[in-house]
Automatic annotation (TrEMBL):
This is Olfactory receptor 10K2-like. The keyword Nucleotide-binding does not apply. The gene is LOC136996466. Keywords: Cell membrane, Membrane, Olfaction, Sensory transduction, Transducer, Transmembrane, Transmembrane helix. It holds the Pfam family 7tm_4. It comes from the Eukaryota.
Amino acid sequence: MENDSQTLATDFIFLGFSNLAELQKLLFVVFLLLYLVTLSTNATIMTIIRVDPSLHTPMYFFLSILSFLETFYTFVIVPKMLVDLLAERKAISFLGCAAQMYFFLFLGCFHSFLLATMGYDRFVAICHPLHYNSIMTRRLCVQLVIASALIGLLVAQADTTLVFCLPFRASRKLNHFFCDIAPVLSVAFAHTNLSEAVVFTLAIFVLLIPLTLILISYLFILFAILKIPSATGRRKAFSTCSAHLMVVVVHYGCACSIYLRPNASYSSDKDAVISVAYTILTPLLNPMIYSLRNKDVKTALRKSLRKNRLSQKDFQ
């Protein structure tokens, strides 16, 4: 009995959506449907890219990795959140909270640097089209993805260690629906200015460095597009970048509004709302943006559906 009470004392309690008690079952249904659509759309994109030879290019290789990340990114947060919406006691263990934060940060950092890699791919395609195949080799693409993953692992390890080495209050109530940095730091007994400064510095590194690289890539892309003599050529060149740009705006807009400000200005209610968009809506919108605005993906999808219909007719 004593061990049970000690175990419970180490748990973190989520208070996210507690002020919407009468709407929690409705939110469960809405979020579950969004989650299932997210899984199905990302799975569809990964499958189409894998089975269609015309999509075996660096751009679509990176897109398949992005869809893979979106799938596991939501898996870290959404299933636990759905369970909590129907549970009376919305708790997570100390180790569970640390693991959730670690994988959330790893996948988020990986995502940020992968978007920078995709920006570099568009830069080479538009600014150096004749050398594209010799520059963006399969080996380089794999190396860029591995480098992005390693940076994510290192940042997640550093941030999670800094946060969970701190002593915590007996009452560990998080006004959030998952173990993010700011809400967990808010229940630390005495988090030092140094730990907060290191976490903030790492956030700057993870967000501003890849965002700066993306902006530099698109600056060169803009100059290259303006040199194209025909309006049709300019539109065609820009259309290959538009989906990536939209994803960049959504991802960095949400992330910067949460992480690029001192912990002292932490607003739990505001951050919870932004986090819903960041963890549920963004992974849903990204594959839709790429599929709806990308002619190659739409063509491959139609081709795949046609093949399925023909195979069903033959089977019958």
